[in-house]
Design a protein that fits this description.
heterodimer, A: mainly alpha, 0% strand, B: 2 domains, 15 helices
């Protein structure tokens, strides 16, 4: 009797994904919802980072072409001036602004202080740019490492519940146990669904931003070397 | 970020929608309705009683009146003489006798091989070592021997014999004859008992007669009851020489009458200990009140083999 009732219950419940969700225990539901939200957030960040990093790369490439095209630095400064610059261009603009500003004080204090200031300014600008690129990458890392555990928690909870259901219904029929197990495992599936792309894209973006950071540092060093050469020539 | 969020949300919604709408529900497993296997619950007593009666029938031609030991000893003896004649006769290559033994022996286990098996397993613990050598020799000399010997008996005895003739080759039984050739302790002795007509010693005849009546379950009852109280010598070397044969009488209430007697002896220094343990087991487990009083005469005198290497065997 019990078995038949349980089977009827099991069969009445939809076995598709929504059915799995609605049958689940409230804790498991919360876990599932949280994981779905995490997944949505992850993918949002992934799309954003794709755009931001791609843009930064292109901008850097374009700027490097301009910079090494033999154009004079002042012309470059003038053409880039009104734009909202990013990446290397931003570094360059910061350095050039500092250079311009320092022209008056150079007469009094010499070039030593100016070179230092320019390096500092470029360093700060580099940090800013990197912070912009790195933003929210940490969220990907967190989701990647913790989502499986959260899903596992939902699974354990669901399995716990279905075992208690066995105890209550006094039937070990698979039809009684199976829906509970399925919904519980669905939580793990969601956890993995969120975690796998998060980990993959975190690794990709971390290496991309690392490369960009190295590029920009190289540029900053080269540019400060150029400035130092110029000041030496002037003296 | 906002753009990314929107895109991500839309993609997730699409995937979820696709999962709900497009993905079908999981295929139902094709479960073929399996016919339930009818299980008949059979009282063990039925089988064991049937076995006993069958054995009775088999033995009947040899010894019609059961209880008196003397007759049993007597009747087989004349049978032994023809056997020798036949042995000689068989040595001349005759095509006819060959198939007939099959019939004969095939007829015995008529009912079905399963019962045959049960019968065998029940017979297993019987101590019939004294019987063995003779049938073995008889079978070793020539399998078909029993054939002609049986022939003269057929008219005398019962329908059983006629049935035997009617039943022609029947595979499992042929197999049985083959098994017999292997001369297993279990298979070989029981059949030749009546056929070879070897002078059975009176004690054994007595045992057989009782076994026919005391059903397997009752013997089992005794065995289990005694076994519960028996602490066999464990880990003793040469346990096979520590088989203790204990005879004891039971009164109608199931209490042991007198003191159990140890029937055998052994050179094993531990035999005394084993014998004591056996006697203690028999005495310690009384009363044996689970035995049917109406059959008291069959369990009034019992012989139990305390075999540490196997377990107990009730005769």
């Amino acid at each position: 009797m019990d078995v038949e009732v349980a089977q009827a219950v099991a069969q009445s419940g939809e076995q598709n994904l929504l059915g799995l969700f609605w049958q689940a225990h409230i804790v498991v539901k919360i876990v599932m919802l949280g994981l779905v939200i995490a997944s949505v957030g992850c993918w949002a960040i992934v799309f954003e980072k794709f755009a931001v990093i791609g843009k930064a790369k292109r901008a850097n490439d374009r700027f490097e072409q301009l910079f090494w095209s033999g154009q004079s630095l002042d012309d470059l400064f003038l053409t880039l001036g009104p734009k909202n610059n990013q990446g290397m261009a931003a570094l360059f603009m910061a350095a050039m602004r500092e250079w311009k500003r320092s022209q008056e004080s150079v007469m009094r204090a010499g070039f030593q202080g100016m070179e230092k200031r320019i390096e500092k300014v470029m360093d700060v600008q580099l940090q800013r740019e990197m912070a912009r690129l790195d933003a929210r990458l940490l969220f990907l890392a967190t989701v990647g490492s913790s989502a499986p555990f959260i899903g596992l928690f939902g699974t354990v909870w669901g399995i716990m519940n279905s075992f208690r259901a066995i105890a209550v219904s006094k039937s070990t029929n698979l039809a009684v146990v199976a829906p509970g197990l399925a919904e519980a495992l669905f939580a793990t599936a969601l956890g993995l669904l969120a975690a796998i792309p998060a980990v993959i894209f975190y690794n990709k973006f971390a290496s991309d931003t690392g490369k960009i950071a190295a590029q920009m540092e190289n540029f900053a060093d080269e540019f400060s070397a150029i400035i130092s050469r110029q000041t030496d020539e002037r003296m | 970020m906002r753009v990314g969020l929107v895109i991500s949300f839309i993609v997730h919604a699409c995937i979820l929608l696709a999962a709900v709408v497009v993905l079908p529900e999981p295929d139902k497993f094709l479960v073929e309705q399996q016919e339930s296997i009818p299980v008949e619950i059979i009282e063990f007593t039925d089988i064991s009683q049937r076995v006993a009666s069958k054995r009775d029938a088999k033995n009947d031609p040899v010894k019609n009146p059961l209880p008196p030991k003397v007759e049993k000893v007597d009747t087989p003896k004349p049978a032994a003489k023809p056997a020798k004649e036949i042995k000689e006769a068989v040595k001349e290559p005759q095509p006819e006798p060959e198939p007939e033994p099959v019939k004969k022996e095939a007829a015995l286990p008529e009912p079905d091989p399963v019962k045959e098996l049960i019968e065998k397993t029940e017979k297993l613990p019987e101590p019939e070592p004294e019987l063995e050598p003779e049938p073995k020799i008889a079978e070793a000399v020539a399998k078909p021997i029993p054939v002609p010997r049986r022939k003269p008996k057929v008219p005398k005895s019962f329908k059983v014999a006629e049935k035997k003739k009617k039943k022609h080759k029947f595979d499992p039984n042929q197999l049985n004859t083959l098994l017999n050739k292997i001369d297993d302790e279990r298979t070989a002795p029981p059949e030749p008992v009546d056929e070879t007509g070897t002078p059975a010693n009176s004690e054994i005849a007595n045992i057989i007669g009782r076994d026919q009546q005391l059903t397997g379950s009752e013997a089992d009852y005794l065995r289990q009851k005694v076994q519960a109280c028996w602490s066999p010598p464990v880990g003793v070397r040469g346990a096979e020489s520590l088989v203790v044969k204990v005879q004891f009488g039971l009164d109608i209430s199931g209490t042991v009458m007198g003191t159990p007697r140890v029937l055998n002896s052994s050179s094993n220094p531990l035999f005394g200990v084993a014998a004591d343990a056996a006697v203690r087991a028999v005495l310690g487990c009384q009363p044996y009140d689970g035995l049917p009083p109406e059959k008291h005469r069959f369990w009034s005198n019992n012989i139990i083999n305390f075999d540490p290497s196997r377990m107990l065997a009730v005769n």
